[in-house]
Amino acid sequence: MGDTGTMTMTSADDVIEITDPQPHDESRPLAAVRIPVGTVVLAATPIGNVFDASERLKALIEHADIIAAEDTRRLYDLANRLGVHVNGRVIAYHDHNERNKADGLLDNVETGATVLVVSDAGMPTINDPGLAIVRRAIERGLPVTCAPGPSAVLDALALSGLPTDRFCYEGFLPRKHSERMQHLRTLLPERRTMVFYETLHRIDDSMDDLLEAFGPNRRMALCRELTKDYEEVRRGTIIEIRDGVRSDPPRGEMVLVVAGASDEEATAAAPSTLSIEDLARLAIDRALEDGLRIKEAISQVAEEHPLPDGTLPNRKQIYTAVLKLKQD
Ligand code: SAM
């Protein structure tokens, strides 16, 4: 037992209560942190500001039997900064071993251990390890719970000023330009506010691709170093944020929040249900109307009609269909 209060076993020994160490004031109920035994507990850790750590997180770090930590050194560093002792066994639990380790950890849960899962920062499972043990716990019928807290997704969304009633979390965009564009094209009809994680190294390229995919005028926010001393939120249109990224490159960790499509944009961007022959007809009309070479018209028409998976219709097939239509 650490110095956070007194510990009692309750309700058939399935929960440990850590009571408030402050002198008890009769006018308020006695506060207690419940440490559920025989349970997996996913706990969020601060994303920058250590004071965002909850009392529950501190008690869990101190009293869990086993802590599965993405980076064990970071766990000890956090515990030091929070002024709590790690009394349980600590194991490294990261992207590369989480599937292999899940069952061993759950065997301990089965015999009554409290297994705490923490990542380097924020909520486990959100672009961090944790999902494998949650899935296995569900499959094995073992209890899993959460001590929620900081996560960059919600922090950025709330600060963006964009609609929060419906949003989607998109994680990191693909690294390669072509895959990023394909993915962004699937999001063209997306009406919900979109939240992306991004890195310092790719922000330039990603901003160019957001501009190409969504056009210059969509509203967005770039939120960086959230909860830290140099927290900054840049709000504006995609072109404004892109230009700002070029002239004043943002440092540190960042999240991009992009407004969803308007009704008109969503309708115009609905995945193509046009046949290759329909696209060929559109290309012929476009070439005539705009005085374009047929190959240029085909490229434009294909770009404007992505398939549901974000890839573009096959230009060669459209070209063959154009030749056939012209022969008929
Ligand atoms: N599990 C974490 C969470 O719940 O937010 C996310 C982990 S993910 C590996 C790391 C990414 O989260 C960073 O590249 C950045 O996009 C975002 N992020 C984490 N902390 C942040 C912060 N303080 N400010 C801005 N973005 C942050």
TrEMBL record:
Any one GO MF annotation of this record: rRNA (cytosine-2'-O-)-methyltransferase activity
Query: Which Pfam families does this chain map to?
Result: TP_methylase
Q: Which InterPro entries match?
A: 4pyrrol_Mease, 4pyrrol_Methylase_sf, 4pyrrole_Mease_sub1, 4pyrrole_Mease_sub2, rRNA_ssu_MeTfrase_I, SAM_MeTrfase_RsmI_CS
The enzyme class is transferase
Gene Ontology cellular-component terms for this entry are:
cytoplasm
Entry EC number(s): 2.1.1.198
Q: Where in the cell is it found?
A: Cytoplasm
Q: Which reaction does it catalyse?
A: cytidine(1402) in 16S rRNA + S-adenosyl-L-methionine = 2'-O-methylcytidine(1402) in 16S rRNA + S-adenosyl-L-homocysteine + H(+)
Q: Which segments constitute the Tetrapyrrole methylase domain?
A: 39-240
Q: Which UniProt keywords apply?
A: Cytoplasm, Methyltransferase, rRNA processing, S-adenosyl-L-methionine, Transferase
State its role.
Catalyzes the 2'-O-methylation of the ribose of cytidine 1402 (C1402) in 16S rRNA.
> Which family, according to UniProt?
Belongs to the methyltransferase superfamily. RsmI family.
In terms of HAMAP family, this protein maps to: 16SrRNA_methyltr_I
Could you identify this protein by its name? Ribosomal RNA small subunit methyltransferase I
Q: Name the source organism.
A: Bifidobacterium callitrichos
